[in-house]
Amino acid sequence: MSEALPNTPEKNEVIDDNARKFTLDGIDPAFLAAHGVSSSDLTTDWLVTDPDSEEKVVHKVLASGETQLWHIKKVMSPDGKRTSDKKRIDNDEEEYEALKARSILQIAKSRHEFPFEQNGVNFKLIYDEFTDSPLRVLEVDADDDDTRASFDPGQFPVPLHEQTGNLSFYGYRVASQV
Asked: How far is residue 159 from each of residues 29, 50, 57, 127, 152, measured CA to CA in Å?
């Protein structure tokens, strides 16, 4: 789920992409800081926006100032599960620029990643604040579907509105909500 993979630009990593999704009004920055948040600014350019697959390049700037460039492909299988194939392309600015030139859709956002424990279960949370938009999305992930399902949104400190399964909040489709 996290895009903070080891700095091995030649390595691709395929991972599950099946986090639960919620909309919310926002999260207090003090709450994020208390939970060891890792923040970054992302600009995403989509190259392919098909119903069952997408391809994008991402320009990610970490709070430290480090820049990461990503080439990401996501595919939905017939059973509705999504997988991501993520490749760092930091060492190839020309590849990034060539891919970005094919952009058909762009979104910018601030991303905040942090761990969250609930009832003894550890979750990985990603909170996105979309630039020039009131839209806020929280993704809740864990190692498997049963663990993800155990997350109780009513126990989170701000009201959450479940969007899991609502394709309007997945991948490039979120642009229609921004």
From this structure: 16, 32, 32, 14, 11
Question: What whole-number distance in Å separates Cα of residue 28 and Cα of residue 30?
Answer: 5
Strands (DSSP E) contained in the chain are 12-16, 20-23, 38-50, 53-62, 67-76, 82-88, 105-118, 121-130, 136-141, 161-162
List pLDDT tens digits, range 107-159. Answer: 999 999 999 999 999 999 999 999 999 999 999 999 998 999 999 999 999 99
Closest to 57 measured CA to CA, from 72, 68, 42? 72
Which tokens belong to 130? 């979309």
Q: At 144, list the tokens.
A: 């498997």
Dig out the tokens for 110 from the structure. 């601030």
DSSP 8-state code for residue 120:
T
- Cα-Cα-Cα-Cα torsion 87, 92, 96, 97, nearest 10 degrees, comes to -170
Residue 145 CA: distances (Å) to CA of 16, 123, 138, 141, 151: 10, 12, 17, 9, 10
